[in-house]
Write a structure and sequence with these properties.
Order of helices and strands: HHHHHHHHH
Radius of gyration: 19 Å
CATH superfamily of the largest domain: Tetratricopeptide repeat domain
Number of helices: 9
Keywords: Repeat, TPR repeat
Organism: Pseudictyota dubia
CATH class of the largest domain: Mainly Alpha
Pfam families: TPR_12, TPR_7
CATH architecture of the largest domain: Alpha Horseshoe
Protein name: Kinesin light chain
Strand content: under 5%
CATH topology of the largest domain: Serine Threonine Protein Phosphatase 5, Tetratricopeptide repeat
Number of domains: 2
Helix content: over 70%
Distance between the termini: 40 Å
Largest sheet: none
InterPro entries: TPR-like_helical_dom_sf, TPR_rpt
Number of strands: 0
Structural class: mainly alpha
Shape: elongated
Length: about 190
């Protein structure tokens, strides 16, 4: 369709712009090797390039950019950004059905996010939800339910029980109950 062709073209243009800016930033970095702000900027550009590739379904390329961003982010010790990046990498791995790699990223993201944000934060709940999704796709229903339950607890507390985010987690818990043939529990989750 014309729309997807236009999106692809604008995506390619954006990617080229990012590449140009990245080259410029790298050149500046050679002159200012100790510039932490510039490292952070490069990490952000690489992260955004990874996001673009991910949106286009080019998961291998997205992971390559995320890994480069991760290397730069480690230099800056920007733990909040590291947590976000690891979470996004986990999602990208999960899309490719690389669940073990995804789980490693989610677990690292969870540790990073808990360390920087505390345990009762929406970003921590988001990562717990992703852990639940990954475990469910691996058929680890009990472990998925544990992650979803913890995510739901945090979401209800910090976002409210009627938040869309909490409802998504509750829905996924219902799906796990359904897979385990616990239909009454599933209905309670779907009806809540």
């Amino acid at each position: 369709s014309s729309s997807s062709s236009e999106n692809s073209t604008s995506s390619e243009t954006l990617l080229r712009n990012y590449e140009d800016v990245l080259e410029l930033a790298k050149t500046r970095l050679e002159d200012n090797a100790g510039d932490g702000e510039l490292h952070g900027y490069i990490g952000t550009i690489l992260h955004r390039m990874g996001n673009l590739h991910d949106r286009e379904g080019r998961y291998e390329k997205s992971i390559q950019h995320y890994v480069k961003s991760l290397q730069v982010r480690k230099i800056t010790k920007d733990h909040k950004s590291l947590g976000t990046l690891l979470n996004v990498m986990g999602i990208s791995h999960a899309k490719r059905r690389h669940y073990r790699k995804a789980m490693k990223c989610f677990q690292d993201a969870l540790a990073m996010r808990r360390h920087t944000l505390g345990s009762r934060h929406p970003d921590v709940a988001e990562t717990l939800h992703n852990v639940g999704n990954c475990r469910a796709r691996m058929g680890r229903w009990d472990r998925a339910m544990e992650a979803y339950a913890e995510a739901l607890d945090v979401k209800k507390e910090v976002l409210g029980k009627d938040s869309i985010s909490a409802m998504k987690t509750l829905h996924n818990m219902g799906t796990v109950h359904e897979h385990r043939r616990e239909y009454d529990e599933a209905l309670r989750c779907f009806g809540d």
